[in-house]
Amino acid sequence: MNETVSFGYEEVAPEEKEGRVGAVFSSVARKYDVMNDAMSAGMHRVWKDKFVRRVKPRAGEQILDMAGGTGDIAFRMEKSGARITVSDINQDMLDVGIERAMERGIDSLVWSRQNAEELTFPDRFFDAYTIAFGIRNVTHVDKALAEAFRVLGFGGRFFCLEFSTTQWPGFKDIYDAYSHHLVPRIGKAIAGNADSYRYLVESIRRFPPMPEFERMIREAGFKHTRVEPIMGGLVAIHSGWKV
Questions:
Q1: Per-residue pLDDT tens digits for 78-106
Q2: pLDDT score of 1 more than 60
Q3: Which parts of the sequence bind S-adenosyl-L-methionine (predicted)?
Q4: I need a surface site. Which of 9, 24, 39, 225 has the fewest CB within 10 A?
């Protein structure tokens, strides 16, 4: 049988997913951060601040922020003096990030279009690898994790912020109803695009549960893996070390 992968609730050929995911993010790039505020009531800012505190970027470190698109994580880490490379497979998202950096007077970031599954960076080049709300959109998550492991030096750390499934009783049902029924309508109202935001919600539902994703991180070679649920697992910070 031919391989298929999930695109939301659909099963599609791997090459089709990459193209369709690219179209989703190209269509929402200009409104992406506005939509994040609308969909999370601004909570994504709190989650990202907490994520960066866990990463603990330090001056002089080489850090790869994968799927970094509009620069939200990189702008937070840049203040540390670390040397940040922002990578994304989608040039439209990178263009938005570059414009935002120029508006902020930030010229220390490196911007590089990259496929998370086939990075062009040399082995053991980075001290830390971060990816926030991006890994569920990768066609082959195992390949992306293997590449993260490859480009990290010994002692390097992997940090991933991603949506998961909240375990809080009652809240799960409320959030499911909100995300499936209201988020596409918000997307239509703000970004003029309901279908793209419907995919983003569906992609969260199809992403592996926290224990399964932690297992995948271990299988990629990382040690001392950890999962830190936020809001009962609505989002989670996953981490591991290359030792």
A1: 999 999 999 999 999 999 999 999 999 99
A2: no
A3: 70, 88, 115-116
A4: 9
